[in-house]
C-alpha cells in the first residue's frame, strides 16, 4: 500500500506555499476573494459581507462524527468552524454562527495549533468549515502547522460560493473539496441569499475543484484521501431544482462523483418568511431527490438514515 502524503507537503517544500501566502495576503487589501467582490481593505478593519477583517474568527474546533463516512471514519473529522460567511443563506442551520458576530479572532499560530491538536487526537483529516472568506489565514497557518508536523488531508467544506481566484490559491494545498451545490435557479439564490450569481459561481467553482483533485479516492481503510465530494441539501417543494443539479454533476463533472444528498432541512434563521421554506422536508420529497440523482447517472451516493416528520 502506497503511503499517502498530502498535497500541501510538496507545495511547501517547493517554496510555492510562500508565494501563495504572499498573494493571498495581498488580496486582503482590496478583497475580491469571494464572488461578492466587496473590494474592502481588510487590513484597515474594513469589513464586507463576511464581516471579517485581517484575522479569522473561529467558533469551535473538535472531532466531528456527523460528517460523511469516508471523512469521519472511526476517530472523526477534525473540524474547524469559522465564524461568518460570504453567502448567508436565510435558512442556514448554523445561523447563529454565520449571520452573527460569533467566534474569537485567532492568530495564525493559534489556528495552526488547532490543526495539530486535532491531528494529535487521532482525527483523520482537518476540515475547514465555511472557509471561503479566510483562505489567506488558512494558508498562513498551514505553513506553521506543517513545521509542527501536520500530515493529514485537508478538507475544504464550502457553500461553493467561491471565486476561481481563491481556488487557484488552494491548488496543490487542499486534498478534498466538499462543496454544497445548493440551488440552480438564480431567483432562488436571490430570494434566499441575495446572491443571484450563486448558481453560476457554484458551477464554475465545482468544475475547478474537480480539475484540481478529480473524483473522490477512498483508501483500503474506507477513508477519503483526495478528490471531490459534493453535498446537496434537498429542499421542500423542489426549490433546489435537484434534477438539474444532478444532471450537471453527471454530465459536466463526472458520473463517478461522490454525492451526499442531505435530508435534514428544517426551517431555521429567517426562512419562515418564505412559505416554501417554512416547512420541514418530507420523506417523499427526499426520496424523489435520490431518484433524480440515480436517473441522472450518479452512481456513488452516500447512504442516509433520517427520521422524517409524518
CATH topology: TIM Barrel
Count of extended strands:
10
Low-confidence stretches: none
What is the distance, rounded to the nearest whole angstrom, between the alpha carbons of the first and last residues? 48 Å
What is the CA-atom radius of gyration, in angstroms? 19 Å
Helix/strand-derived class? Answer: alpha/beta
* CATH class descriptor name: Alpha Beta
Number of helices: 11
Q: In percent terms, what proportion of residues is strand?
A: 15-25%
Order of helices and strands: HHEHEHEHEHEHEHHEEHEHE
Which CATH architecture?
Answer: Alpha-Beta Barrel
Helix percent reads 25-40%
- Structural domain count: 1
What value does the average pLDDT take? 95
Largest sheet entry: 10 strands, mixed
Which overall shape is indicated by the principal axes computed on the Cα atoms? globular
> Can you say what the CATH homologous superfamily is?
Aldolase class I
List the defining traits of the structure above:
TIM Barrel; alpha/beta; 11 helices; 35% helix; single chain; 310 residues; ten-stranded mixed β-sheet
Please provide a brief summary of the model.
The chain has 310 residues and is of the alpha/beta class. It is 35% helix and 15% strand.
Amino acid at each position: 500500500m502506497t503511503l499517502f502524503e498530502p498535497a500541501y507537503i510538496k507545495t511547501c517544500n517547493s517554496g510555492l506555499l510562500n508565494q501563495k501566502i504572499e498573494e493571498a495576503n495581498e488580496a486582503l487589501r482590496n478583497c475580491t476573494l469571494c464572488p461578492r467582490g466587496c473590494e474592502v481593505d481588510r487590513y484597515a478593519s474594513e469589513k464586507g459581507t463576511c464581516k471579517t477583517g485581517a484575522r479569522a474568527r473561529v467558533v469551535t474546533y473538535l472531532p466531528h462524527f456527523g460528517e460523511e463516512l469516508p471523512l469521519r471514519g472511526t476517530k472523526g473529522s477534525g473540524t474547524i468552524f469559522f465564524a461568518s460567511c460570504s453567502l448567508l443563506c436565510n435558512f442556514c442551520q448554523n445561523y447563529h454562527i454565520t449571520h452573527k458576530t460569533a467566534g474569537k479572532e485567532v492568530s495564525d499560530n493559534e489556528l495552526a495549533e488547532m490543526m495539530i491538536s486535532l491531528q494529535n487526537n487521532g482525527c483523520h483529516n482537518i476540515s475547514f468549515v465555511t472557509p471561503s472568506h479566510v483562505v489567506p489565514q488558512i494558508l498562513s497557518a498551514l505553513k506553521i502547522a506543517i513545521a509542527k508536523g501536520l500530515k493529514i488531508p485537508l478538507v475544504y467544506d464550502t457553500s461553493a460560493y467561491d471565486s476561481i481566484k481563491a481556488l487557484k490559491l488552494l491548488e496543490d494545498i487542499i486534498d478534498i473539496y466538499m462543496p454544497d451545490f445548493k440551488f440552480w435557479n438564480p431567483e432562488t439564490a436571490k430570494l434566499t441569499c441575495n446572491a443571484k450569481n450563486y448558481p453560476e459561481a457554484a458551477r464554475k467553482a465545482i468544475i475547478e475543484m474537480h480539475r484540481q483533485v478529480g473524483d473522490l479516492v477512498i483508501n483500503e481503510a474506507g477513508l477519503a484521501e483526495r478528490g471531490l465530494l459534493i453535498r446537496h441539501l434537498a429542499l421542500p417543494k423542489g426549490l433546489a431544482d435537484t434534477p438539474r443539479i444532478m444532471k450537471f454533476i453527471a454530465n459536466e463533472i463526472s458520473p463517478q462523483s461522490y454525492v451526499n444528498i442531505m435530508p435534514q432541512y428544517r426551517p431555521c434563521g429567517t426562512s419562515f418568511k418564505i412559505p416554501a421554506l417554512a416547512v420541514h422536508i418530507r420523506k417523499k420529497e427526499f426520496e424523489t431527490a435520490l431518484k433524480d440523482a440515480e436517473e441522472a447517472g450518479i452512481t456513488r451516493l452516500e447512504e442516509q438514515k433520517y427520521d422524517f416528520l409524518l
